[in-house]
Design a protein that fits this description.
Layout lengths: L2 H14 L1 H37 L5 E6 L10 H10 L4 E16 L2 E10 L2 H5 L4 E4 L4 H5 L4 E4 L1 H7 L9 E4 L2 E9 L13 E5 H7 L7 E6 L5 H16 L5 E5 H44 L1 H9 L4 H35 L11 H27 L3 H6 L2
Parallel strand pairs: 3-8, 5-7
Antiparallel strand pairs: 1-9, 1-10, 2-3, 2-6, 2-9, 4-7, 5-8, 6-7
Helix pairs in contact: 1-11, 2-9, 2-11, 2-12, 9-12, 11-12
């Protein structure tokens, strides 16, 4: 009996037990679709973050002050003066002092992120006010209690009222709304639109913190990033005398670190999802063992009329591979459906289709069919024809 004949007999057996065959491949369907969906969600989440970081430009430099093993401190005025002295390499500097605070308007209140910064933040982060205005230098110099609020905050506490000129309270202190930020994230909660921006000099008093830990610095161009970073490091080393007291990094480094984290996260998620493929493989082995028991007499008749051990082995092995192969294809279709209509449809994260992981998950499903189908196939092929014919 050749391969074609073994294939036809395997298909006939699968068709004659449709429900059992479907239950056999169910574990593989769930496993493959889980792997594809998990990878798509991980890569989609990463893509959203990367797109956000990339939109800031490749000439963005982040400075993080830890103050580790140092009692010194650098002020915003010092960094601003330093940037003006090095205007050939540095275009703008924006302090970033943020905390979670309660924003209240009349009887409505909301917990949101309050960021203290400067007018340069508008240029560096490519944000602006679509009604009203953004921060101006006078707001910082005279410590004006003005606020520029995101659309998520507007939608929640103002409920259709024009917020410009209205008075709000931030942690109990009165502020005047000067502008509404351009919408970046569809007005969603916990996103780029769920924030309030105030002058950094006011934020230091509001948060009772004289130390600014984070700065966003924009180099003149991508070509001057390395030169700017070198000068920033020299400047901070003179102040802190200890390189562990601060960290300077640019967008390229952030993207590289993020890419490494994504690879690890994707592998872990795919590995967890792949466990269901192993469980599905065990199910295949159990059901095929039952199938061997049910078809003992059939195997005995085939052996009695000349079928060899390798013929029986081939038939059952092909049957297992076909079941897992069909299950793998169905799993791919279901995974693609989930990515497009659920992940993409509900805009959880951007849609990402990884051809590599689709191929890998399908190949794993075939390997599962071979590995877990081999034992039942061998058991069927090893049956004694005389004992098999006696079975009922």
């Amino acid at each position: 009996m050749g391969f074609i004949q073994a294939y036809k007999m395997a298909i006939k057996s699968i068709r004659s037990n449709k429900v059992r065959s479907f239950l056999t491949m169910l574990g593989v369907i769930i496993g493959v679709s889980s792997v594809i969906t998990a990878v798509a969600f991980a890569q989609g989440s990463t893509k959203r973050v990367i797109d956000t970081i990339s939109s800031m430009g490749t000439n963005l430099i982040q400075v993080s002050i830890t103050g580790r093993n140092s009692n010194r401190n650098v002020t915003y005025n010092q960094i601003k003066e330093f940037s003006e002295e090095n205007s050939v390499d540095i275009a703008a500097v924006a302090p970033q002092s943020n905390s979670t605070a309660t924003v209240k308007y009349k009887t409505k209140n909301r917990d949101t992120t309050v960021l203290g910064t400067s007018p340069d933040y508008q240029t560096i982060r490519s944000v602006g006010a679509y009604i009203g205005r953004f921060l101006v230098q006078n707001d910082l110099d005279s410590m004006q209690r003005v606020a520029i609020i995101g659309t998520a905050v507007v939608n929640d506490i103002f409920e259709g009222t024009n917020p410009i000129g209205q008075k709000i309270k931030i942690n109990g202190q009165l502020f005047s709304v000067a502008g509404v930020l351009e919408e970046k994230d569809g007005g969603q909660d916990n996103g780029a639109d769920d924030m309030v921006i105030i002058p950094v000099t006011v934020a230091q008093r509001l948060f009772r913190s004289g130390t600014i830990r984070n700065y966003a610095i924009q180099a003149k161009s991508p070509e001057t990033v390395d030169s700017a970073m070198e000068k920033i490091n020299e400047f901070l080393t003179k102040i802190y005398k200890n390189p562990d007291a601060y960290r300077v990094f640019n967008q390229a480094e952030m993207l590289e670190n993020l890419d490494n984290m994504t690879g690890t996260m994707t592998t872990v998620l795919a590995g967890i999802a792949a466990i269901s493929l192993v469980v599905g493989g065990i199910g295949i082995m159990n059901i095929m063992l039952v199938s061997v028991t049910e078809r003992t007499k059939e195997i005995g008749i085939r052996k009695a009329i000349g079928a060899k051990k390798k013929n029986i082995l081939l038939q059952f092995l092909i049957e297992a591979i076909i079941v897992t192969g069909i299950g793998g294809l169905l799993g791919i279709l279901i995974g693609l459906f989930i990515i497009h209509f659920i992940i993409g449809g509900f805009e959880l994260v951007p849609e990402v289709y990884s051809i590599l992981w689709i191929v890998i998950s399908f190949e794993i499903s075939l390997v599962v069919g071979i590995i877990f189908g081999l034992f039942p196939a061998y058991k069927a092929a090893s049956l004694n024809p005389i004992e098999a014919l006696r079975s009922e």
